[in-house]
Structure prediction request, 417 residues.
Amino acid sequence: MREDHREAVDRVHATRLWQRHVEMAAIGAIPGNGVNRAAFSAEDIRARQLLVSWAEARRFGISMDAIGNIFVRRPGLDPDVPPVMSGSHMDTQPRGGRFDGIYGVLAAFEALEAIDEAGVKTRRSIELVAWSNEEGGRFAPCTMGSAVHTGARALEDIVGVTDNEGVVLKDALAITLAAIPQAKGREFNAPAAAYVEAHIEQGPLLEMQGKTVGVVTGIQGLRWFNIEVFGKTDHAGTTPLKLRKDAVRAAVDIIMALRELTSDPDDVLRFTVGRMLVTPNSPNSVASHVLFSVDIRHPDQATIQRLGEAVEPLARKAAGVCDVKVMPTLHDDPCVFDAQVVSAIERAAQTLGVSNLRLASGASHDANYMSRVCPAGMIFVPCENGVSHNEAENAKPEDLAAGARVLTATLLELANR
Ligand code: GLV
Ligand code: MN
Ligand code: MN
Prediction:
């Protein structure tokens, strides 16, 4: 490793990085040490403003695109070559933790600061990106900011999405965009030389094997659906069962059929119904309408394809007397990260003496969409007991710093290619 690169890596500051997590975790803090920072909420806006204030203090360039992705740039020597990018997301699950997403943003910022303090000149600019609405917990689907930025999804197609309270994404987005007046406008899909995302593992492998860094090889495939069941509301005490069109009963039958479809003795296949809206949602009225989400994941392309195609016919069959509408909302095939980026990350870890392990990601990430437009990879750090999407999510300051060092060394190598 070049001496100036080593100096930058040595400037990665574990306490500063930890302190920034503490500051961010205060925005949307919930009982149990968790964070609720929904995309395009007042809390999301405050987190964005805090990040931008840190970037301004460093005189880094700040820009934002029309879906609200924020870019923080440390210029390189050659303004005409595409930048190397790194980042993740600042939104959380409704009962989320202090690390999912925000770690990748803060690790990238730590890398930018360390490189800046060491005065290292890079050929390419290095750019942090904070993606909008990665979680999809408020406005489905997930990984929205990176999907729109990379052209996989059109902005016009998602602006009408509503949250559980009926707020339209278009309105929440407009408020968010107006709250960062310092940011220059940024076009979608400007070329990138490479993308590296740091993230907590959200699973138990690193901890179980006593390794500090995961060199991520790819992400499993994912299908999301919204299934709506239409019935008729009636009196719960007086209406005979055989005369009912009970939307909850039909929804349960559909879910049981999907459970059977996705049952896997090896526990590789993942099936989740995590969101359910019932109308009129009263104990003594038969439900007239149910909307529920379906999330199915598998690493194998043929398997995820087959399962995805089976959902609609199966739901129609199981719905009985009720009507059903099946809306696919996300279709991500398994992705394999770029071999050169993967080996650059592995080499960085080995050079720095950070114990590491190659592994695949069970969770979805913005790196999936970036891998379709440029060479991409990810760096994982352990989280306690593998717990994530939970207030109890936890990680060690020294592991977060080790991941940020590996990230810094990797970005420097890629930025000088
Ligand atoms: C992202 O949080 C995912 O659902 O994997
Ligand atoms: Mn995440
Ligand atoms: Mn998440």
